[in-house]
Design a protein that fits this description.
Length: 185
C-alpha cells in the first residue's frame, strides 16, 4: 500500500451484489423500525467505543452525544432514506442489541440498469452485545432490505483497523475491494 497521508486513515470497501451468497435468515434477531431517541442513544454508545478512526475523532472533538446527533442529522443531506430502512435489532428476550441504517445513494449516477445503489450509512452493536456474531446478522438484514428494493449493489466500507467489522463483512459474503485513504475529519 502507499504511504498514509497526514490526517487520513485506511478504509476497506466491501460490496454485495448479484453472485454473492444469499443472506441467511436470522433466527436470533428480529427487526423493527428504529425510533429517534433510542437510536441517538445507541449511535452515541457505538461511536464512543468504536474502532473506526472517524468515530474516535468525532467523539474526541464533540463528545459522544453531539457526535451521534450530528451523524444522524447529516444523513438526509447525502442519502435517500426510504421509510422503515433504519432498523433496530432485538434478541430473543426483546433486548435492543444494535441497529443498521440502510440508505440509498442520491443521484442518478449511482443507478445501474434502472436500479438504485444502497449503502449502510451506519450500523452498530451496543457494547454489551458485541462478540456474539450479531454484526454479520445486521449486515445480512441490510442485504435483504436492499434486495427487496431491487438495488443492484450494496456498497459499504469500514476502517481497515476495525477487524471485527472487516470479519463480519467477509463472513456475510461481501466482496472485498482494495483499501483507500479517507480524511479523518
Amino acid at each position: 500500500m502507499e504511504d498514509l497521508r497526514s490526517g487520513h486513515y485506511w478504509k476497506t470497501p466491501f460490496v454485495w451484489e448479484e453472485g454473492c451468497p444469499a443472506p441467511k435468515a436470522s433466527s436470533r434477531l428480529s427487526y423493527g423500525v428504529a425510533d429517534g431517541e433510542w437510536l441517538t442513544f445507541a449511535v452515541a454508545q457505538t461511536m464512543a467505543s468504536s474502532l473506526d478512526e472517524s468515530d474516535i475523532y468525532a467523539v474526541s472533538q464533540n463528545g459522544q452525544n453531539q457526535a451521534a446527533s450530528e451523524l444522524i442529522t447529516m444523513a438526509p443531506q447525502y442519502f435517500d432514506m426510504p421509510p422503515g430502512w433504519w432498523q433496530v435489532a432485538k434478541d430473543a428476550e426483546s433486548n435492543r442489541v444494535g441497529f443498521v441504517l440502510s440508505v440509498l445513494f442520491k443521484g442518478d449516477e449511482t443507478w445501474k440498469d434502472g436500479r438504485p445503489e444502497a449503502t449502510i450509512f451506519y450500523m452498530g452493536l451496543l457494547p454489551a452485545y458485541r462478540g456474539r456474531g450479531y454484526g454479520q446478522e445486521l449486515l445480512e438484514e441490510a442485504v435483504r432490505t436492499s434486495q427487496l428494493a431491487n438495488c443492484w449493489r450494496l456498497f459499504c466500507d469500514t476502517g481497515t483497523n476495525n477487524h471485527p467489522m472487516v470479519s463480519a463483512f467477509r463472513l456475510a459474503g461481501f466482496k472485498e475491494r482494495a483499501p483507500w485513504q479517507r480524511p479523518v475529519a
